[in-house]
Structure formats: C-alpha cells, structure tokens
C-alpha cells in the first residue's frame, strides 16, 4: 500500500531499528516549523518477513515538503473529474414504484372479481383467531402499537448521529405523503363509495377502513430511509409491522386485501418519493477509487474521468497514470506506450438496474440460451467480468490485461485493465479498415470459439484497434464461459453483421472465411435474424434493411450446398401478443353488444331470404377487396391467399382504426410475398388512393341523383354546425402547417405513405387487365356493402331508394374511416342510424337494420378472421 508506514513487524523494519540484532533505534527527528519536508517511498520486499505480509513501503523524510499522515496517500493524488451530484434518481426506484402500482391495481381487480372469496377468507381468519389466547393477542397489540413507531424513530436518530439527515428527511416526506393519502382515501371511501368496489375491499362495510392509516406511513418511511445491509433493524421493523397487521385482522378493522393494499401503497409512495426527490448519491468518488487502487498494491500518480458524465446509463471509467519513479509501483507486465497506464471501470450498484425493463422483455421473449440474466447482483457482475477477462486471456485472444479487481465500499466495485492506446472500430476511418485488420479481428474471434467462450456483445465498441494496428476484444461484462453451440453461433452472426455494417457483406464473409474456414459460416445463416442481434446493431440495420439478406446470399454463394435447419429463438412473437390482445378486446366489445340484442324479436320479424342475401353480400366484400389489391400489384399473387388476407384484416380492424388495419396487413402480406418494401407500400397506397377518388366521385354522383329525384334525403346536407366545425378544423390544420417542424413531419409522413404511388399507377395503366381488375374490385367493394345494407333494411320490412342507400353508406363509411376507433366503432353505428332515420325509416327499423348490418360485416367475421390471421402467421404470409 502506497501510504506512510511508520513501523511494522520487527523482521520488516529497516536496518537501524530496535529489532533483535539491530542497532540502537535513532530518535525520530522532528522537523522545524519553517522547513518543508517530503515523503519518498522505499519498498521492502516480502522476503524480510517470509512473504507473509506482502509488499510494504517505508517513508523517509527529506527536505522540501511535509509528510502526509499514514491514513492514506490518496490526498496527494489529483483526480480530474466533474463534481458528482448530491442526489441521483435511481432507475431501480422507478421500476419498483411501477411494480408496486401494478400489484396494487391487481389486488383491486382481484377483490372486485372475487368478493365472496375475500369475505370468506376474512371470516376464516376471524374464526381462527377467536380461539387464540387473549393475553397473547393483548401483548402483541401492545408491542406493535408502541414498537411500530418507536423502532423507525430510533433508526432515524441513529442515522442522524451518522450525519445521514438527508435520507431521514426524504423518508419523513414519504411518511407524510402516505399519511395524507391514506386519510384522504379513508374519508372519501367511507362517505362516497359504500357498497362499491372499495367497499368489497374492506369486506365489512363503512365501519372499516380500506387502508391501514397507522401502517402505511411506517412502510413508506422504512422504504424510503433504506435499511439495506442492516439485517437486525430490518428484522425488528418488519416483525412489528407484521404484528400490527395481525392485530388489525383479529380486531376486525382490517382485512387481508386491505393490508395487502396498504403494504403496496406504502411501498409505492416510498419508492415514488425516492425517485421524485432523489436519493443521496452513494457512488464513491474518484478519490475513493484511487485509494482502492493503492490497496491493490498499485501507485497511482494522477487520474481522470474518461467517460461522458452526461450518459447516465454508462459505467464510470477512469484513466490512471502510475508512479514511474519506482519500478515496484508499476502495473505487472510490460508497460505500453500511451497517456494512461490503467483504465479503471467502476460498477456502481445503482446502475445494475439500468435498462432492466428492456432486458426482462428480452429474457421473456427469447429462449434462455439466447440471452443472459436480466439482473445480476454487483458481486456477481464483478466476478463474471473478471472470470471472462482471465478466460479470454488464457484462450490466447488479444484483450487488455486485467490487473486487479476490488469492491469500493459497499456501493461499487472496480476492474483495473492495462491501458491499450487505440480507437474503437466505429471510430476508425474507412481506408484504415483493411482486410488485414479484419482478418486479425476474425483470428481473435476464432480463439474465443476454440475456448468455448461467448462474448454476446461483439459490437463496434467491443473491438479496439490499437495504435500498433492490432485488434483487441474488450467489454466482457456479458460473456459466458463453457458456452453452448447456440451461443457461439449467435456470436458468429453478431460479428458478421458488425463487420458487414462497417466493411460490407462481401468483405465480411470473405475475411471470415479466410480465418475461420468456409465450413464454419453456414452455421450462422439461420441466426441472421434481427431479433438475435444486439440493440445498437438492430438500430443500425434500419439504415440498410437488406443487409442480413445480402450476408446470407454471400454465404450461400460461397457454400452453395449450405443446408442449415431453421432456429426458433423466440418463445413468442409480438404479433402473438397482438392476437391475444385483439381477441380480448374484441370479446370485451362484442359480448356487451350482442347481449343487448333482443334475438327473439329479431328472429320473429326478420325476413330470411333477405338475411341470406345480406350474408352473401358481406362475404362478397372480401373477394372484391382481394381483387382491388391484386389490380394494383403488377406481380402475380394467389387469389385464394389474398382473399384470406382480407378475411384476416377483419380481425385486425377490431384493434386498429379502420383506415389503418387493412393497410398494415396488406403491406405486410406483399412484403412476405417477395415484393420489396417500397413497391409494397406503393401498391397499397395506389389502391387506397384510387378507392378514395372513387368514393368521392360516387358520393357526389349519387348525392346529386338523390337530391334531384327524391327529397327524402335533403336533410343529409351538412348543417351550419358541421360547416363551422369543418372550417375550424381546416383553419387549425392550416395554422399548424405554418410551423416548420409540423410541416416537415407531415410532409415526410405523406411522402413515406405515397412515395412511388404514381410510378405504380403508371405500371398498372400499362396493363388494361390489371386496371380493370383494380377498378372492378374498388367499385365491387362498394356495391357489395350497399347490397348488404339494403338487404339488412329489407329484412326488417323497410325500404329506401337505392340512391339513398348508397349515399347513406358512403357517408357513414367516410365517418368510420375518419374516426380513430377500432373498425369505426360507435361512429359508424351512429351515422348509419341517424342517416337512415332522416331518410324516412322508423327508429326501430333503422336500429335493427344497422345492428344486423354491423353483425354481418364487423362482428360475425371476427372468429374466421382470427383463424385466418393465425393460419397466415404459421405460413409466414403476414
């Protein structure tokens, strides 16, 4: 340790001491006040004491400076780093706050659903505690009444004596907030909501409280003050809180559900207060890091912060210069040229939860062998990275040598690496990325593979190009020893993509084949999937969406006989969740709608042959929609599968606005059919544009015909209120477009939506057959819907002119497309009912006709649409 050492074991003392056989000890010289003294380190090897005490440093005094005390030499080591904030907001507190809120909502939901179960559970507890000794219950009540407040106060006093008053103040704030919220909830529930959901929570009526006002502030205080590492305080505090909860149950003024809600509410308030106000910064300073390096036997002379302090998600990194005056103080191994001797990476405990939601999502979505653990304790992270660094070095791969590791207090740990001067691969100029450099990268990777070591983060930042032109592998924090075949193949796919992003697919595959052999590359082909790559790599692939396909093509061209079995990395796909959520939403909406129908009345009054005609017209809409799409796609597509896609779209529109769901699924279908993204979007955009033009023309034509031949629909003309609303919206849109940012956003979205539409239309115009197919499908789609609506009206004895039915349908369809609700829900029904009533139908006939029409066109296709959607997913058609 590089500190002043005034004495030690007799065998370790320098000559001239009072040790056995030594000369008489010289008296300690006291420096004069006006004279300056300095300290000079003199090492004595462990040979003096048989190697038991390790390396020591003595201090001799010379003129020119003052001797620093033996309590630590770090006071004289300058550390260049920005001032750390007094308080920080930890992502872990935000995550715990969110989890507590979700759990509280789940408790409320379960109680509202299982009211009888909650009441039965409370009854069982009351009957069970009735036979308990009253003396024991009285003692427990007495102990909890005094202790539940006394123990936290005692802990707060102890923290104040240790000068941790800020933490105590934050905890008191959390307790005050919890008390105010619980009192407010109790008063509001008692007076405003007896017999409701919260009354079920309290299981007994208004004489009980839904949350425990005495316990919630204490839980919030304990949560915010932080008792981590103080097991005795934790045990006593939570025991007394448990006793207080037990007495609440036995005295029948709290229930199990209420106590669970109280606990979760207190936790949520405590964590929310911590995150809102911030916790006192527990991270050790650079001086503490330097002091830890000295305890490792290193002699830092100066240090500086290297990372960007503004990047809250990055680990801290320090550059350290060691003392060059004394060879014994240098880092082990050969000294490399450069500004720094060491690079020290600091792992802060509060940073271990950074990005946890994303890692948990990846862990749930992907197979266990694809991802590492979502959350590791600080000690586990330190051990894993240290083990990987030693294993990589033992495997012969070139990597900065790990000099030492240590914990820095209780809130951080450090790893000290030898500094390798150089740049990350992403910082190297294009002309410097030579085949020689790439071949060296692949040779280092081959040594990892031979040692069964998985890196898991082979991005550009993990590859260091030294000033000597050689490649080094860094960033071992996510590595794995004794890795399985899948993990090694994932590393290969990741590095292929990383190199291809930097040097192109052809050079990436060629240099990899020269170092690994051609037979090693086909194993990566089935794993060249976006989901298998790191987050930053997936972001980079947005600029070149065809890169993975081109890498596969290069490998297949190199090994034409490549046959690799497909690998399923995902436990489930996002579209699976989409299907489940969509079906749940559909069921939630459909069941009340269908339950409100009077089926007996409908069945007794309906005309069956008109019902069958309406059903046939509804089925014909899917065929017309398929031909509408086929007409604007120059490529050949199977008619049957295209019709099935339109059936699947009927399911999608229940969870997406009517104008969005069909566009999205049709675009996806064309892409899966081998059409590139640009032409696929252009084809769907062309069909939508032509459909819009035809819709407007038909509305104008039939509106004119209706107005000139029949006066029943004259009131369908826009009212003054509608005109005012339309003009106001137009004025607001025009004002918004004067803002440059809004204008650029709108222009980019429109350009992305309709880019390539005109060239696509030109391609269609060159083929009269395609043009007839597209226009026929567009008009046929409108005709089929109009026939379905007219047949639904006639099924209940109503009758309207055909022109009036067309205008009603076109108007309601426009409203449904404009309103951002799933399938135009609510807007279409209201518009149709109002328009039919204005056109001359009775309210009962109009309502029945609209319900039948929506049943046939929206609700009835839900189950077939879901089945078609699932089938097309299995076939990778969408």
From TrEMBL:
Ranges of biased composition (kind: Basic and acidic residues): 42-52
Membrane topology listed for this record: Multi-pass membrane protein
Region annotated Disordered, chain positions: 1-86
Sequence ranges of Basic residues compositional bias: 22-41
A Pfam family it matches: LPG_synthase_TM
Domain of life: Bacteria
Main location: membrane
Transmembrane portions of the chain: 94-115, 135-156, 168-185, 240-265, 577-595, 607-630, 642-665, 685-705, 717-739, 771-788, 800-819, 851-872
Cross-referenced InterPro entries: Kinase-like_dom_sf, L-PG_synthase/AglD
Keywords in alphabetical order: Cell membrane, Membrane, Transmembrane, Transmembrane helix
Location relative to the cell: Cell membrane
Name listed for the protein in its UniProt record: Flippase-like domain-containing protein
């Amino acid at each position: 340790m590089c500190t002043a050492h005034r004495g030690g074991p007799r065998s370790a003392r320098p000559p001239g001491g009072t040790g056995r056989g030594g000369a008489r000890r010289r008296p300690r010289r006291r420096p004069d006040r006006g004279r300056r003294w300095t300290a000079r380190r003199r090492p004595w090897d462990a040979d003096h004491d048989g190697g038991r005490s390790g390396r020591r440093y003595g201090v001799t005094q010379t003129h020119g400076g003052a001797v620093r005390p033996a309590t630590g030499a770090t006071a004289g080591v300058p550390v260049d780093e920005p001032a750390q904030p007094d308080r920080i907001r930890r992502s872990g507190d935000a995550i715990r706050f969110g989890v507590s809120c979700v759990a509280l909502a789940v408790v409320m939901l379960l109680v509202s659903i299982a009211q009888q179960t909650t009441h039965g559970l409370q009854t069982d507890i009351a009957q069970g505690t009735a036979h308990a000794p009253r003396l024991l219950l009285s003692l427990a009540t007495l102990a909890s009444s005094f202790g539940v407040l006394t123990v936290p106060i005692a802990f707060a006093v102890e923290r104040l004596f240790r000068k941790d008053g800020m933490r105590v103040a934050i905890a008191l704030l959390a307790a005050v907030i919890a008390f105010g919220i619980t009192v407010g909830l109790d008063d509001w529930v008692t007076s405003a909501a007896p017999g409701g959901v919260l009354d079920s929570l309290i299981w007994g009526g208004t004489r009980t409280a839904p949350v425990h006002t005495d316990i919630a502030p204490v839980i919030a205080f304990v949560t915010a003050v932080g008792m981590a590492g103080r097991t005795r305080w934790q045990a006593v505090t939570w025991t007394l809180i448990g006793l207080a909860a037990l007495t609440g149950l036995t005295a029948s003024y709290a229930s199990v559900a209420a106590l669970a809600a109280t606990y979760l509410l207190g936790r949520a308030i405590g964590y929310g207060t911590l995150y809102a106000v911030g916790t006192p910064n527990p991270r050790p300073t650079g001086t503490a890091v330097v002091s830890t390096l000295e305890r490792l036997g290193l002699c830092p002379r100066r240090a500086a912060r290297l990372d960007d302090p503004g990047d809250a998600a990055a680990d801290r990194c320090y550059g350290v210069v060691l003392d060059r005056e004394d060879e014994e103080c240098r880092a082990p191994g050969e000294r490399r040229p450069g500004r720094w001797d060491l690079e020290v990476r600091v792992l802060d405990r509060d940073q271990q939860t950074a990005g946890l939601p994303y890692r948990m999502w990846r862990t749930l979505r992907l197979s266990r062998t694809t991802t590492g653990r979502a959350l590791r304790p600080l000690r586990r992270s330190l051990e894993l990275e240290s083990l990987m660094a030693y294993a990589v070095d033992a495997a012969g791969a070139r990597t900065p040598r790990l000099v030492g590791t240590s914990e820095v207090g209780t809130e951080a740990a450090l790893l000290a690496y030898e500094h390798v001067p150089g740049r990350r691969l992403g910082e190297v100029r294009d002309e410097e990325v030579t085949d020689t450099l790439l071949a060296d990268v692949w040779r280092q990777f081959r040594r990892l593979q031979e040692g069964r070591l998985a890196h898991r983060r082979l991005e550009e930042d993990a590859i260091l190009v030294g000033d000597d032109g050689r490649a080094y592998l860094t960033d071992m924090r996510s590595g794995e020893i004794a890795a399985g075949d899948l993990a090694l193949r994932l590393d290969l796919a990741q590095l292929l993509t990383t190199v291809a992003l930097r040097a192109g697919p052809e050079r990436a595959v060629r240099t990899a084949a020269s170092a690994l052999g051609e037979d090693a590359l086909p194993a990566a082909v089935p794993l060249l999937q976006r989901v298998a790559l790191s987050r930053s790599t997936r972001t980079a692939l947005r600029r070149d969406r065809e890169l993975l396909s081109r890498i596969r093509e290069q490998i297949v061209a190199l090994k034409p006989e490549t046959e690799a079995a497909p690998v399923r990395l995902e436990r489930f796909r996002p579209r699976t969740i989409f299907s489940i959520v969509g079906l749940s939403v559909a069921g939630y909406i459909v069941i009340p709608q269908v339950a409100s129908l009077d089926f007996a009345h409908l069945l007794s009054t309906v005309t069956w042959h008109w019902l069958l005609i309406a059903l046939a017209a509804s089925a014909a809409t899917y065929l017309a929609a398929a031909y509408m799409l086929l007409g604007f796609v120059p490529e050949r597509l199977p008619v049957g599968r295209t019709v099935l896609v339109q059936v699947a779209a009927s399911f999608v529109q229940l969870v997406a606005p009517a104008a969005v769901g069909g566009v999205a699924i049709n675009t996806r279908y064309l892409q899966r059919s081998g059409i590139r993204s640009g032409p696929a979007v252009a084809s769907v955009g062309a069909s939508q544009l032509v459909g819009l033009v035809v819709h407007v023309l038909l509305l104008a034509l039939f509106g004119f015909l209706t107005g000139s031949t029949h006066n029943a629909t004259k009131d369908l003309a826009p009212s003054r209120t509608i005109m005012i609303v339309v003009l106001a919206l137009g004025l607001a849109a025009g004002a918004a477009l004067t803002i440059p940012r809004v204008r650029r956003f709108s222009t980019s979205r429109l350009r992305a939506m309709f880019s390539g539409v005109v060239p696509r239309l030109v391609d269609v115009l060159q083929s009269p057959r395609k043009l007839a197919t597209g226009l026929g499908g567009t008009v046929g789609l409108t005709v089929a819907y109009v026939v379905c609506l007219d047949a639904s009206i006639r099924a209940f004895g109503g009758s309207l002119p055909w022109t009036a039915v067309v205008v009603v349908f076109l108007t309601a369809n426009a409203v449904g497309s404009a309103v951002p609700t799933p399938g135009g829900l609510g807007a279409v029904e209201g518009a149709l009912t109002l328009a039919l009533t204005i056109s001359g139908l009775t309210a009962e006939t109009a309502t029945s006709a609209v319900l039948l029409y929506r049943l046939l066109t929206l609700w009835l296709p839900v189950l077939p649409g879901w089945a078609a959607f699932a089938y097309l997913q299995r076939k990778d058609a969408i």
